[in-house]
């Protein structure tokens, strides 16, 4: 059948899409593992149930995992299944002072919707969902089943996908709308770890909110604040005096592009070293990292042609009465040997009395450019956008494409469009999201026929 009426049909569902997204943004679905009655916290569970309720209203068959790890919504018939993986959990809002609007209230200004999750990943996931709804309204017959799988633990440990893959049917192929167009065919290995050592100082610190976000602030409330301020001035580092503490300022970005951010924790440790403080973590950062997002002093020039340089981000620091701990996120090139990278880091850390403790690891992925999935998605993207220049790309991002074989990340951010995930004032241009809806609708049509 023809998709000549697709654009008008997408326009018909657009306002319902915006309303559904508004309802999901209003749920602050940040992980909370202290709520024992829920897998990842009450708010994430509410977001999952809301997403499934929306799907049911749209005419999908739905399923809620009894343990609350995931849910899915399905349409169509056939033995084969095309999967679309999205996640409903979000990273913390961070400093509310840096938001121009409330992070968990969808606000539309000048054609832009602001709110945590608009870009990562509630907005793109619902865009794909309502794209399929438009196909349903057009009377499209799906010769394969289309299953939307809603995850709840993407920003942390992917326990949702582990459980799904253990007990559920795995799609033949599919995509996750959680990255950039045209598509991502290779993703670096993602390693998250702690470097830990006994605290033998009087220093106490606690800063950073997530492994995978470059920290935009680092707080210090100890002694010698006047000297610290002078050192920060001398180093040219931005800071604020807030009551009884100094807040070193950075720039938050996703850890996959750590070189585009400014790491406030590293800057604080550099300034503390300058005024005479010493500790295991202070010495490690000052000797081996400082402002280098690639940690070349530890790993050398670790990069490859497919996926680029190794990335190194100190996402959190905790110096308590008993222990010093750095929480680090690394993106490892596709062809690099993970065991060798770990050995280099562990050996370097050991010299400072710090022990390597692995927190999580996600393998790299690589789908050849001549694969049916790649060729089909690229064809649709090029037909809709007219962009014949952009090529399939490799990424340091960790998307759900890693969770299953024959999956890639596909949108919803266009080339040259601002990436605001994990940042204050996260937002999405609604006209661009509408264009993504058309791409997703045509892609699902092609993959199911």
TrEMBL record:
InterPro entries: ArgE/DapE_CS, Bact_exopeptidase_dim_dom, M20A_pepV-rel, Peptidase_M20, Peptidase_M20A. Its EC number is 3.4.13.-. It holds the Pfam family Peptidase_M20. GO terms for molecular function: dipeptidase activity. Gene3D superfamilies: 3.30.70.360, Zn peptidases (3.40.630.10). Its cofactor is Zn(2+). Keywords: Dipeptidase, Hydrolase, Metal-binding, Metalloprotease, Protease, Zinc. It comes from the Bacteria. Belongs to the peptidase M20A family. This is Sapep family Mn(2+)-dependent dipeptidase. The lineage of its organism: Bacteria, Bacillati, Bacillota, Bacilli, Bacillales.
